[in-house]
């Protein structure tokens, strides 16, 4: 648990006590760890690998968030005792620390720092969702694709306004912004045609980050 940022600064003996009440579990890539609507109150800390919080519609899946080593999930049902709010799937092989709700809640109660971090985590999540709802209310599908490209990109060091887009399929972009794969393919083509997006060694590169951001603001 010492590797989980949520528990940073907690004295070793306290961590050891929480750890003794938890269990290290592993799951292969593709395995569901928690399923939407299921009962369960364990909290999971991702020790290694990546996972994804998702929800499903009749004809589509929606990616809520990617979870990386150090992230925790399952805290919502631990806090309110209600069924799981979303499904979480292992994207790669994962190792998890499975923490009983009582231990997680005791940690929140015992440590103001842990409590603050849980609040920050939940606030960050509401902000991310608010941003998406704002985009749904204001943006066309094309602009949602552009906004997602910006979110998925990191500045290319030494370049002028270029950014490398994380490897991602059109279907994944669609699942992040609540649309269909075909719409993403069409909109990406339009962004490429406008000269704002180029392919370089098989990777997507935003050629002009300020230009792409500006094209959103004008919309
Ligand atoms: P819980 O509801 O217990 O089980 C599903 C978990 O998915 C949930 O707790 C959160 O940890 C996680 N989760 C649900 N919605 C989101 C979201 N929008 N962003 C990130 N994680 C989420």
TrEMBL record:
Gene Ontology terms, MF aspect: DNA binding; DNA-binding transcription factor activity
Pfam families: cNMP_binding (PF00027), HTH_Crp_2 (PF13545)
Domain Cyclic nucleotide-binding, chain residue ranges per copy: 6-125
CDD domains reported in the protein's UniProt record: CAP_ED
Superkingdom per UniProt: Bacteria
Keywords, comma-separated and alphabetical: DNA-binding, Transcription, Transcription regulation
Domain HTH crp-type: 139-210
Annotated Gene Ontology cellular component terms: cytosol
Keyword DNA-binding assigned: yes
Name under which the protein is recorded: CRP-like cAMP-binding protein
Source species of the chain: Oharaeibacter diazotrophicus
């Amino acid at each position: 648990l010492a590797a989980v940022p949520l528990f940073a600064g907690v004295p070793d003996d306290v961590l050891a006590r929480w750890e003794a009440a938890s269990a290290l579990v592993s799951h292969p890539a593709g395995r569901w760890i928690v399923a939407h609507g299921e009962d369960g109150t364990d909290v999971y800390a991702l020790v290694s690998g990546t996972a994804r919080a998702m929800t499903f519609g009749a004809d589509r899946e929606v990616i809520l968030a990617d979870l990386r080593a150090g992230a925790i999930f399952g805290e919502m049902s631990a806090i309110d005792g209600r069924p799981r709010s979303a499904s979480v799937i292992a994207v790669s092989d994962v190792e998890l620390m499975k923490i009983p709700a009582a231990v997680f809640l005791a940690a929140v109660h015992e440590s103001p720092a842990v409590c603050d971090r849980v609040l920050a985590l939940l606030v960050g999540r509401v902000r991310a969702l608010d941003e998406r709802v704002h985009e749904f209310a204001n943006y066309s599908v094309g602009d949602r694709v552009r906004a997602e490209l910006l979110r998925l990109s990191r500045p290319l060091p030494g370049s002028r306004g270029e950014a490398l887009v994380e490897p991602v399929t059109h279907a994944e972009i669609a699942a992040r912004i609540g649309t269909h794969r075909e719409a993403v393919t069409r909109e990406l083509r339009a962004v490429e045609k406008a000269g704002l997006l180029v392919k370089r060694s098989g990777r997507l590169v935003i050629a002009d980050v300020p230009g792409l951001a500006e094209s959103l603001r004008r919309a």
